[in-house]
Design a protein that fits this description.
about 220 residues; alpha/beta; Rossmann fold; five-stranded parallel sheet; 9 strands; globular
Length: about 220
């Protein structure tokens, strides 16, 4: 797993380990202490494909959670340097090491804001498709949790938008999910892979319901 010491990653690592999975976390030396006991830490750089060599074995599932903390429009350069470089490295490693499945957290789109962030995440999806990897792509918009709760103030606006036919689809696509829902959806993605050679795209409603079993066709969406 790349990004296993982060906001979602730490919770997912703990969940997978508790469910009996053998988890290896690619982490920088400075973050190694954040890898829990019982989980293998592989010291390396998630921006470099060669760092994955010791972390990935043929048939493994790669979970990519690397990203710029607290994304904002002013961080366009960081999105290129960190977010895009890391998924490019993960895709290269998945192909070279013959990983069985790549799980990638992208972002909901289209959207009226965060153009640079969306462009980089969408490019990550293109890289996955071009490499013809078996993959699950999750597209949350904003993940609620400790320290990440300010969008709760927008709930009344979402409620109104869902009642207006022209706005309903956008309100669902750009809806809010909780960190617990993300961990549940990611866990199911690991445990229930799509058909070999296919890409499964999971939107906000699918993340909320963690209904991954329904999407197994090429470019299938839930």
């Amino acid at each position: 797993m790349a990004g296993g010491t982060g906001y979602i990653g730490q919770r997912l690592v703990a969940t997978l380990a508790a469910r009996g999975h053998r988890v290896r976390v690619l982490a920088r030396a400075a973050s190694r202490a954040r890898v829990p006991a019982g989980v293998t830490a592989v010291v390396g750089d998630a921006l470099e494909p060669r760092s994955y060599t010791a972390a990935v074995e043929p048939g493994d599932v790669i979970v990519h959670l690397v990203g710029t903390p607290h994304p904002s429009p002013r961080k366009a350069a960081e999105f290129q340097r960190v977010d895009l470089a890391s998924i490019r490295a993960a895709v290269a490693a998945a192909a070279a090491q013959r990983a069985s499945h790549l799980v990638y957290v992208s972002v909901a789109h289209p959207a009226p804001v965060m153009a640079a962030y969306i462009a980089v995440r969408a490019e990550g999806e293109v890289l996955i498709a071009a490499a013809q990897l078996t993959a699950t792509i999750l597209r949350p918009w904003y993940v609620l949790g400790p320290g990440h709760r300010w969008p709760l103030a927008l709930i009344p606006i979402y409620a109104v938008a869902r009642k207006i036919p022209a706005l309903r689809e956008g309100a669902e696509r750009l809806g809010l999910v909780t960190v617990a829902q993300m961990v549940s959806a990611l866990t199911l993605a690991v445990e229930i892979p799509p058909a070999r050679g296919t890409r499964r795209v999971v939107s906000v409603p699918g993340i909320r319901g963690a209904a991954l079993r329904a999407a197994s066709a090429v470019d299938g969406r839930i």
